[in-house]
Specification:
Chains A, B: InterPro entries: Cupin_2 (IPR013096), GPI/OXD (IPR051610), RmlC-like_jellyroll (IPR014710), RmlC_Cupin_sf (IPR011051). Chains A, B: Pfam families: Cupin_2 (PF07883). Chains A, B: It comes from Pseudaquabacterium terrae. Chains A, B: This is Cupin domain-containing protein. The structure is a homodimer. The first copy, chain A, is mainly beta. Chain A has helices at about 25-30, 40; strands at about 10, 35-40, 50-55, 65, 70-80, 80-85, 90, 95-100, 110, 120-125, 130-135, 140-145, 145-150. Chain A has one domain (about 35-150): Jelly Rolls (Sandwich). Chain A is built from two helices and 13 strands, in the order E-H-E-H-E-E-E-E-E-E-E-E-E-E-E. In chain A, a hairpin with a 2-residue loop joins strand 12 and strand 13. The N and C termini of chain A lie far apart (about 35 Å). The interface of A and B includes residues 95 and 96 of A.
């Protein structure tokens, strides 16, 4: 990444991450309207990731999931995404935030069901040995050396 | 903390942290106009802290410092603080961000030299064994079980 030594930068000047997703279809299409600027990585940070994320109309943040070891947090900057947890849907507004404690078992994601873009800050740590679970979908993941390999829950490929 | 099970909340509804600072004088007075809402803690997150922080006119974010183990990140929501690093001062605007890599040795803080409030999101992880250093001031800190004890650099008290 260029500009690593710059003490500060405009978040919008950070180029969106080139790799859109590692999800197989049909999940990849659901996040096609998601754009992540990896702000923490732009400054060489490694203990946590912090992204400026845009969800275009119709996009979701991720397949609804929970983490075993890694905490997650979102702060809404613009737009009105729907947060879905085990408790159901909640409409969020700018200035609202949500935190997802590792190991809680409560799954979450954001959906942009509006006609306007949603922008938010997301934070996640990088605790080793994390496992993500997807209660609503036939999706499982193994992460090896930072590479996400997605399968069906029986271990077979979606192809 | 009440409302830990709420899936989301307005950040401004999180009550500012009661303890203003552990700094001794004359440093405590410099952060008197600083107000931190511990958003991550409000959801029970423990791997990192994320705060909504307000700097009233004249306030600083902290004594200028660097960390040995813990990364830090800020995203400016409102106002124009001055970021001071080893490279000197930089005026920030809303939508700008900065990251401070652990172990870089480059020290930082924010100063509100304007007549308007500054609001920003700050993130820091909780890696064990962290040490903070304060190059500009006669300040040293030892953290034991989460309690910060500040001294002069020779180990004596500021009292």
């Amino acid at each position: 990444m260029s500009n690593q030594k710059s003490p500060a930068r405009r978040a919008l000047d950070v180029i969106p991450h080139a790799k859109q997703t590692s999800y197989p279809e049909p999940f990849a299409s659901l996040v096609r309207g998601r754009e992540k600027r990896r702000l923490g990585d732009a400054f060489g940070l490694s203990n946590f990731g912090v992204n400026l994320t845009r969800l275009k109309p119709g996009a979701i943040s991720s397949v609804r999931h929970n983490h075993s070891k890694q905490d997650e947090f979102v702060y809404i900057l613009e737009g009105s995404p729907t947060l879905v947890t085990d408790a159901g849907p909640t409409e969020l507004q700018p200035g609202m935030c949500a935190g997802f404690k590792a190991g809680s078992g409560d799954s979450h994601h954001l959906k942009n069901e509006t006609a306007a873009d949603v922008w938010y800050i997301e934070v996640g740590d990088r605790s080793a040995g994390d496992q993500a679970s997807y209660p609503d979908d036939d999706l499982a993941v193994v992460v090896t050396d930072g590479v996400h390999v997605f399968t069906r829950k029986d271990g077979s490929s979606h192809e």
